[in-house]
Specification:
The chain is mostly helical. It has a single domain, classed as Up-down Bundle (Ferritin). Helix content is 79%, strand content 0%. α7 packs across α8. The protein is globular, with a radius of gyration of 18 Å. It binds fe (ii) ion (2 copies).
């Protein structure tokens, strides 16, 4: 069930990313490199969503829709944020899923079709991360203190968004455990610890690359994500 929820969450967040890419795409001329790249990325991301949905059907479980708070954050990002912030939030999510995917594909204990899905996804995501970093370079190089602070918070928010997306109390309720609340709490803490160890170093080095840690952001990262900066 958890695996199904992870696959659903990947697909759902990629659906959000596609809206962001489309918003950018309709402002571009088709002869530009960026247009060509974005169309290809959209094709790939839609294929990924199809692949994740197939994986959910393969493991044959019910999934739970993203929580109200996640949907609200998605709405804010889509409707109220400038394009650079939207792309930074996509990048932070892609950085995390890339590391996650790498671990799933290497773990022989994971159901083989899911390992295959992760392998295919990992190959294409590496290219997306590269493109987004190149695209963002202009914004990051020309950002002032306030913008770097905002970007840093957006990345942190992206990490928190992904970290809180999978663990659902409904899953433990359905499994019929004694205290679903306690299991949910333990699973959340475990994920926080594991993600802190495995995924945060790469994300932190990205934030360092644009000088995103300062006296405002450092304490926030430490208290919210337990980050060792
Ligand atoms: Fe993807
Ligand atoms: Fe991607």
């Amino acid at each position: 069930m958890e695996l199904g929820q992870v696959m659903y969450s990947y697909g759902w967040s990629e659906g959000l990313a596609c809206v962001i890419f489309n918003k950018r795409l309709i402002k571009l001329n088709p002869e530009t490199h960026e247009y060509r790249y974005l169309v290809n990325e959209l094709i790939e991301e839609f294929r990924h969503q199809d692949m994740f949905a197939k994986a959910v059907r393969k493991v044959n479980v019910n999934t739970y829709k993203a929580s109200r708070i996640h949907r609200m954050v998605g709405w804010i990002q889509l409707n109220l944020m400038p394009v650079s912030v939207m792309f930074i939030s996509v990048l932070s999510v892609e950085l995390m899923t890339d590391i996650y995917g790498k671990m799933i594909r290497r773990d022989p204990k994971v159901f083989e079709p899911i390992r295959k899905v992760s392998e295919l996804h990992h190959i294409e995501e590496g290219r997306h991360v590269q493109y987004t970093k190149m695209w963002l370079k202009h914004y990051l190089d020309n950002s002032n203190f306030l913008l770097r602070t905002l970007y840093s918070i957006v990345v942190m928010w992206g990490v928190l968004f992904m970290r809180t997306l999978y663990v659902r109390e409904e899953i433990f309720e359905k499994l019929g455990v004694d205290s679903p609340k306690k299991y949910t709490k333990a699973a959340k803490e475990n994920l926080k610890k594991k993600m802190g160890e495995q995924c945060l170093p790469d994300v932190i080095s990205f934030v360092k690359s644009f000088d995103g840690f300062n006296f405002i952001t450092r304490p926030i990262w430490k208290s919210v994500l337990n980050a060792k900066i």
